[in-house]
Amino acid sequence: MTTPVIGVLALQGDVREHVIALAAADAVARPVRRPEELAEIDGLVIPGGESTTISKLAVLFGVMEPLRERLRAGLPVYGTCAGLIMLADKIIDPRSGQETLGGIDMIVRRNAFGRQNESFEAAVDVKGVEGGPVEGVFIRAPWVESVGAQVEVLAEYGGHIVAVRQGNAVATSFHPELTGDHRVHALFVDMVREGL
After folding, report:
1. So what's the pLDDT on residue 149?
2. Which of the residues 17, 18, 81, 182 is marked catalytic?
3. Annotation says 50 is catalytic
4. pLDDT tens profile 115-160
């Protein structure tokens, strides 16, 4: 069995937790900050954090355009929370100067589930993940307002879309990496492995 090398965009957010989750799912995980590091990976995780900050740092570190090129070329990617926002083609009420990588034909709403003090955990049934619901941590989480015809909805919570897939791109509104349940990461690692 091939062991994929999966980068975690290490500009801001819960990078360490994703590295641990990916390693538990039988991948080699490494932080990625510079454009040249993109050439060394088979897949990429974009962690949660603050989407505006990640966007600005990606431009500052010179990885925004090279990353867009790799995604267009088919690099598998998984975004959680702010990572979901970064993969959206459109954001409702973006912050000034906020850019996305795009790649998933969806419109997202930032902080849709409320402020930091309204964060919560919930059991979420995710299509393709066996063994019962995933425990999702929602921290100032976005939701997906609408998706295009090519987007597969993987999960909903409270009547809102919280997990999607389009081609090689997967995104969740919640943070599975904070729970010790690595099944969503395993799903992504399998996806990356299939493309090797």
Report:
1. 98
2. 81
3. no
4. 888 999 999 999 999 999 999 999 999 999 999 999 999 999 999 9
Q: Which of 18, 175, 182, 185 is catalytic?
A: 175
Tokens for 118, please give them: 């309204």
Q: Which residues pair with 8 in a beta bridge?
A: 31, 45
pLDDT given at position 94: 86
Q: Is 37 tagged catalytic?
A: no
Model confidence at 96: pLDDT above 80: no
- Give the closest residue to 159 by CA, choosing from 113, 100, 110: 113
Q: Which two tokens stand for residue 120?
A: 């919560």
b/e per residue, 3-27, with b = 16+ CB within 10 A? ebbbbbbbbbbbbebbbbbbebbbb
pTM (global) more than 0.85: yes
CA distance 194 to 196: 6
- Which of 17, 18, 177, 182 does the annotation list as catalytic? 177
